[in-house]
Amino acid sequence: MISLDSIGPILAGSARERAKQAPVRLLLAVVMAWAMYAGGMASWIPVWLATALMVQGFEFWAMAPFRRDRPSTGGLAVGLALMSTILMATLFGGMAMIIWTTNHPALVTLAALTLAGGLLTNVASGIGSRVLFFIGGGPYLLFLALMPVIKLVQGDTRGVAVMTLSAALFAGMMLNIYWRVYHARQAEVRSRAEAERRLEQAQGAMADRAAMAAIVSHELRTPVSAILAGAHVIRDGKLPEKREETAELIIDAGRLMTGMLNDLLDHSKMEAGAMAIESRDFELGELVRDTARFWTAPAAEKGLVLDLAVDHDEAVWLRGDPYRLRQIINNLVSNAIKFTPAGVIRLEAAAPHGDGQHCLTLTVVDQGAGITPEAMNRLFSPFAQGSAEVARTYGGTGLGLTVSRELARLMGGDLTVKSAPGEGAAFTLCVDLPAGQPTQANEGFEGSAPTLTRRIRVLAVDDHEINRRTIALVLQPLEVDLATASDGHLALSLLAERAFDVVLMDVNMPGIDGNETTRRLRGSDGLNAAVPVIGFSAGTEAEQVDACYAAGMTDWLPKPLEPKQLYDALHRATSTADVVSAAGGEPGTQAA
Length: 592
Description:
By secondary structure, this protein is an alpha/beta fold. The chain is built from 18 helices and 13 strands. The strands form 3 sheets. Strands 2, 4, 5, 6, 7 and 8 form a 6-stranded mixed β-sheet that branches. A 5-stranded parallel β-sheet has the order 10-9-11-12-13, with helices on both faces. It has a two-stranded antiparallel ribbon with strand order 1-3. Helix 14 links the parallel strand 9 and strand 10 (481-485). Helix 9 packs parallel to helix 10. The radius of gyration is 41 Å and the shape is elongated.
């Protein structure tokens, strides 16, 4: 059952259309008055014209609330508007029937055209609702069906069958036209709504991008300023006693920039649906303790206590993505330290077993100022801070919590928060993970720089001079024999002329990139066809890394290059080369 309130919102279009039809109806009333005069009913003309004006005036008044900028939706207003529509159709349809009974050829034609015109006008005014069409067009359809009946009552049976068939065909044609127009209109309305929705999304995305650009620009200036200031101090030789402290400042600023860029990259991956979750075995207690150990010193520097509570005495092995779990915990603990002026930060971990899985729960509780209801509404929105004051005081891109919740949901869990102003906050990660198998920890090469058994020959290939200078600076403690190349063509020329022990290959270069350069090297029969190639790039997607190995690279590192990671990769490469050499080959040459 359709209520009057549901019809109200769609009466606006009908009201405006019927107002446009008013002059035509008044002209039709005059024409019908002339027909009445011709049919010998002149005495009824004043009554007819007065009634037509009154009904038209009533309709104009009843439809007025729906022609406003904010149409009325009240039940009484809707009822009056529908009543005026029925009265109008009944008045003109009834007069058409009276004229029809005269049997005058011209007047009969006028009567038929009046009914046809009434149906057509209701197609236009009722296009937004089938209910409105049948309310306004129903009387005309009824009078159309009565036309052959009136002829039978008058005793005139000539052509009644043809008249009946014609009336039925005309009614069917009008209904068919209305149905097609109605569905076309509905499709147009849906398309327009979809276009408006997409426009709003595009405008929102543009606003988000503008906010992102402003925030990232602002936030990157802080670490960049620290790096430049520290570099100037070291270059100028000022404050030599502060050199180590200045170097630590530069390192911290670089890691801050890397964290921001990682958040931006993760957010972009999630928006594109390209974020992948790994699955491997890890021990819960080890994961939590290692993460807590990392944050103990920053917490202590602020006078805070980082309390760890693992709800298991024995090792609990799980299978999931420990790297992403650590990323979530890091974000939560970092925020807790940032927003807690004094007191204790508690990291709780539990993974009770049930239904073949472990219900992993990680909770970070702080003693900060708490979160207001207004801030809670936008807490997980990208590039949003709790307030303008928070953004000015603590900085940040506002992506940490957004990325953390999306990672939790990608794992099949969720990240929730409970807080009240003045009572701190508790962030809880819940995710179901299957049981894992105990594995042996893979200890990598330790130490800031390896001690090499011989002086190795390294070729560094990168199109940016700053990157080549950075690699040279990082490799300086190893006292390697370093050569550099600015593109793939120059690298291949050098590799054809002299033997190398290791090649450091930038993946993304103009001309021929690192992958193509490696493929050409592997396809040659030169001195270095089998030399270890360590690729490095800012593209960390799995398919990009797989493409490097498919091209023939033996190892891969992400940008920015961490010295220890580069040292470890060189250690692996030279160890492998030495094994090959001991087996009868020569480093930098292809084994037979």
